[in-house]
Design brief:
It contains no helices and eight strands. By secondary structure, it is mainly beta.
Length: about 90
């Protein structure tokens, strides 16, 4: 899996701290992220994914992306794998 992080050029650098790009097969199916004092915009160009905030909240499924605004608790980001139907 390739992970790339870049600071955007001006004038976007005054609004966006950094950009992250992930490509390829991740070595994990779930990733738990800590609370952060920032807003995250996730643009998804791959398979659907799930986001869940805490263990007592049901996960939500997203296909195109989502915005996570100022998470106050750890949240789980998970990839969804679908099985192909047999002919």
């Amino acid at each position: 899996m390739e992970y790339v992080s870049r600071v955007p050029p001006p004038p976007l650098d005054t609004l966006i701290d950094d950009l992250h790009f992930l490509e390829g097969v991740p070595p994990y199916t779930r990733l738990t992220l800590p609370p952060a004092p920032s807003t995250l915009l996730i643009v998804n160009l791959g398979a659907p994914f799930r986001v869940r905030a805490g263990t007592d909240i049901a996960s939500a499924e997203y296909a195109d992306g989502c915005v996570v605004t100022m998470p106050t608790r750890a949240w789980e980001f998970g990839l969804i794998s679908y099985k192909k139907d047999s002919p």
